[in-house]
Structures are given as C-alpha cells and as structure tokens.
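Sequence, please.
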C-alpha cells in the first residue's frame, strides 16, 4: 500500500497543442525564453523541430564510424594474424596476404560493429531503457502516440516557476496544461 503522507515532487508542466505547427511555434517560444530542460513529444518526427529547440547535432554518427573503423581494423588484424603469423598456409604458391579473399570478412565485421554501435549508441544517448516516466501518469499524454503534440518543461530548469511556465504555454496556444508529479 502507498503511504498517503508521502509528498510528491513536481516533475514539470505538460502542455498539449493541436497540430505540429503550433508545437514548433511553442518550442521556439520556450527556447527564446531561455528554458533548456524541456522536450517535445509527437506521434511522428517533425521536420524543423531540432532547429526550433536549438538542439546540437547528434553524436551517434561518430559512435557508428568509430565502431565501423574498429571492426575494419579488427578484421584485418584478425585475418593477418590467422593467415600470415599463426598458421601460414601456402596454397599453390600464392601469397599469404590474399587481400581479395579477406574482403567478405572485413566487410561483415565492419557492418556488424557499425550496427552494434548504432543500436547501443542510440540506447545510451537516449538514456534507455526507461521502464517508467512521470509523464506516463497523464491521461492526456497517451495521445502522444496517436494524435497528440506536447511540450513538457521540467522543474529542474533553473528558471522554472510553475505559474510563469503555465502562462507562457497558455500564451503559446496550448489547449490543455497540467502539472506532472513524480512518485
């Protein structure tokens, strides 16, 4: 049973907007007012949202290329060690470094490690897995996977004041505003 004397802390203020255009305009307004701890939620990617929120470029590309280069160099080192140093096998007088025969293995390891870097890098950068989130307690937020467009300004933001945030989001044209509490 839950203790009724436990005090819930404020997570942030959630606002719903009617369409993607209103959401982008709201994100620009929130960003222009100096808020940094906020996020937008929509059922599909919205072109221009990164720019509206002044987000930095993703580091995922660097993670993928570094894993790909690791796979490439690892494959060459592995094959060289096996075919030239550890167990040299001279077949018909051919050279031990038969690069064309190595291409499939080099290609496969490069792609394999790049894919692992992409998947696990995305998990790491997104802070996944998250089994629960305070926004999941909102009934309105369930529309974020279907036809809802939301902005949530978190209480961790240095200039967060619930009343000012609610006024800002109301002025931005929010159709529904609610405070979200953590358990």
């Amino acid at each position: 049973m839950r203790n009724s004397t436990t005090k819930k802390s404020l997570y942030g203020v959630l606002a719903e907007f009617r369409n993607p255009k209103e959401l982008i305009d709201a994100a620009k307004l929130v960003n222009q007012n100096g808020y940094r701890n906020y996020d937008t939620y929509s059922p599909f990617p919205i072109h221009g949202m990164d720019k509206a929120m002044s987000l930095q470029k993703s580091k995922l590309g660097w993670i993928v290329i570094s894993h790909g280069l690791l796979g490439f160099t690892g494959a060459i080192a592995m094959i060289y060690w096996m075919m030239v140093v550890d167990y040299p096998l001279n077949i018909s007088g051919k050279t031990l470094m038969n690069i064309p025969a190595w291409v499939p293995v080099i290609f496969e390891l490069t792609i394999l490690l790049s894919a692992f870097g992409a998947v696990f890098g995305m998990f790491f950068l997104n802070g996944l897995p998250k089994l629960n989130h305070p926004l999941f307690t909102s009934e309105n937020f369930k529309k974020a996977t279907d036809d809802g467009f939301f902005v949530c300004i978190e209480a961790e933001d240095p200039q967060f004041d619930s009343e000012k945030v609610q006024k800002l989001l109301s002025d931005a044209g929010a159709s529904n505003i609610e405070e979200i509490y953590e358990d």
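Residues 9-57+134-182 form a domain with the Alpha-Beta Plaits fold (CATH 3.30.70).
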